[in-house]
Amino acid sequence: MIPLRFPMKIAGQPTRTIRFAPDRPDLVQVIDQRQLPHRLVWQDLNDLATAAWAIEAMVVRGAPLIGATAAMGLFLAALEVRSQSNFREAIEASAQRLLQTRPTAVNLHWAIARQLACLADCPSGAIAVDQLRTGAVQILEDDVRQCAQIGEHGAPLIEAIHARTGRPVNILTHCNAGWLACVDWGTATAPIYHAFDRGIPLHVWVDETRPRNQGAKLTAWELGQHGVPHTLIPDNAGGHLMQHGRVDLVMVGSDRTTRNGDVANKIGTYLKALAANDNQVPFYVALPSPTIDWTLRDGLREIPIEQRSDREVKYMDGRTESGAIVEVLICPESSPAANYGFDVTPARLVTGLITERGICAASEAGLRSRFPEQF
Ligand code: MRU
Questions:
Q1: What would the pLDDT profile of 61-110 be if each residue is shown by its tens digit?
Q2: For the domain 9-142, what is the CATH superfamily, name and number?
Q3: pLDDT tens sequence across 247-284
Q4: Residues with CB under 6 A from ligand 1
Q5: I want to staple 118 with a disulfide (CB 3.0 to 4.6 A). Which of 4, 129, 135, 262 is the partner?
């Protein structure tokens, strides 16, 4: 059993991405990820509407954190309707609202289903509040434990490469599958943090991850906070680095993985998998089991892919030398733009899945070996 601790720190302070406000058990707070890396701002979530907005507007993002925020959102919804006789129907309607926020990350559906199950025999609104609060806290704690276990299982992959080569291990990652995308630790970053904390020399290539730049804004920031050596690269540099032996391992997260091991993750992940395959670079996906959609078999046909506003492609924001945060247009104003949020990497391109129960092949047989109860 891995001891629970608060490993991730901001300026030396143990920090999680989502918490109850100090001395306010009815108020949830999240880090506003739209403002990183320039400002660290906590956003209050005091009702269902704000929680749903926070997911939709990507104040919070990353599959596990989307699930955790939805779980808290249902607790906040219960607080609002606890004195109504139809509290159960009102909470179920809130669940429907949350389900519409973002389509691809299956953790959202998983967390909401788990929370609604708490309501099954609930006699009153007041008890619903208690049960949904306890349920949400449990979802947060489970996520921390699962990510820590992913770290334990994944770190030996990094250690083995270092033992073989005797030099720092170069890991490429895409988007932010870090602790900011979860409650703590992260998924793809958990093995990196574990190996780094054990003194294994390593270095991370951080894809900037257009159009929202989660790599540049979030992964670079959190690795820096932890002191992990890293280099930011344009999204299209990975193939070149792999051809020249500068990448030992690719590690990414997932928003939804099918029972046969197809992996949906941030747009551009598939291209990294192709380049890794062409250069015999191991390509691992780290994910907790709530990211597995046991109902799906064909990721390419069945996983819903979010399409977002063209504005995210046409404009970029950043900090000027005077410290102001500004948004600028980077293309002809009249040019149309397409913004697919995710792509699907077929299981055949995935070297292995790193789960809380260990590493397995990206296949039905592989997942069955770790999660027999799902088959
Ligand atoms: O659109 P986002 O920022 O929510 O997308 C996040 C990702 O694609 C992550 O890689 C994924 O959620 C894994 S998180 C541990």
A1: 999 999 999 999 999 999 999 999 999 999 999 999 999 999 999 999 99
A2: translation initiation factor eif-2b, domain 1 (1.20.120.420)
A3: 999 999 999 999 999 999 999 999 999 999 999 999 99
A4: 61-64, 105, 175, 177, 181-182, 186-187, 214, 253-255, 265-266, 341
A5: 135
